[in-house]
Amino acid sequence: MITSPKLSIVLPTYNVEKYIARCIRSILNLSFSDYEVIFVNDGSTDKTSKVFESQRPDSRFRMITTKNQGSGPARNCGLRAAAGEYVYFMDPDDELIGDPFIRSLSLMDQKKLDLLFFGYIQKDMNDGSETSCTMPEEMFSADSEEFRTRLLKSVCNNMSANSVWNKIIRKSYLTENGLLFPKMRAGQDAVFSWELYRNMKRSAAIKDIGYRYSLNRPGSVRSSYRADRFFNDMKAVNAVKQDISAWGLNELYKNLYVRFGVYVVREEIRNQMQGNCINSKVILKSGLYKSLENVSLNNLSWKNRIKLLLVKLSAHGFYKPITLLLK
């Protein structure tokens, strides 16, 4: 009798020949072993496929090859092929640390959770510095109100709510809610995540750290100019705004909205500098800028008040110093 694995680990894979061996090793270092690993080769033009075959340890690991469409469609392809009860979306240029699945999946089984967040370390590839992002305490939610007003709010304050590599999801929840990643080259993780949150009830956020995320990696999607990046990132901000407005929680999540909006403006500043195509009007005329400009300062942190001021300066072309100050 063929039994399905407990967990499906899905990795969208594009031109990561330098990192894929490290990624596989980090999975093999787990004590937990009831998994399948699905690499979706998104039309790589380097030796990603050959390196995978040379490093492939056993039948739990497989690679599906598709034409290049971006990480969202690649993840959807992996999700459709996944046989696990739970699904975890990992990036192949990152690595698992510790043993994040044994306790997490046990909690998900015991409490019948559809979603679980765990902590991570963010490593800046520019200077090698590392920052731990985790919860100050463990939290559980049993209904949508508790999830929205307490658990998710705490996640937003302490780590990324927009990323997918710090969460484990029950696959049937995705299927029942028709959730897939949008076909976007940037911002697709945030759009997917906030669609995931719309009907969420039973969830947990734990203190355990289980992932090391590589920030500012050369060759990553964020490291080169894309003409449509600002447009896609604004879709992500709008997805956040749509949910918190529908929940009637604009004030509760105001600092999150400002922080995310400022991040998107900063990313467009960096994007334009990378492409040597400085055009502040793109920011100034955007709905995002106008929305940020109209945000009341009431109940905003001082840090976000300063960031809003810097965003307004950036619209007038003060780019280089703003890029540094908006971190």
Describe this structure in words.
This protein is α/β, with parallel strands linked by helices and 327 residues long. Helix content is 44%, strand content 19%. The protein has 13 helices and ten strands. Strands 1, 2, 3, 4, 5, 6, 7, 8, 9 and 10 form a ten-stranded mixed sheet that branches. α7 runs parallel beside α8, α9 packs parallel to α12 and α9 packs across α13. The longest helix is centred in the last third of the chain and has 22 residues. The protein is globular. The C terminus is likely disordered.
Structural descriptors:
327 residues, ten-stranded mixed beta sheet, 13 helices
- What summary fits the major beta sheet? 10 strands, mixed
- Percent range of helical residues: 40-55%
Query: β content, as a range?
Result: 15-25%
Order of helices and strands: EHEHEHEEHEEEHEHHEHHHHHH
Total of DSSP H or I helical runs spanning 4+ residues: 13
Q: In total, how many beta strands?
A: 10
Structural class: alpha/beta
- Form type: globular
State the end-to-end CA separation.
Answer: 53 Å
Average residue-wise pLDDT? 88
Q: How much is the radius of gyration in Å? A: 20 Å
User: Any low-confidence stretches, pLDDT <50, length ≥5?
Assistant: 323-327
Summarize the structure.
With 327 residues, this protein is an alpha/beta fold. It has 13 helices and 10 strands.
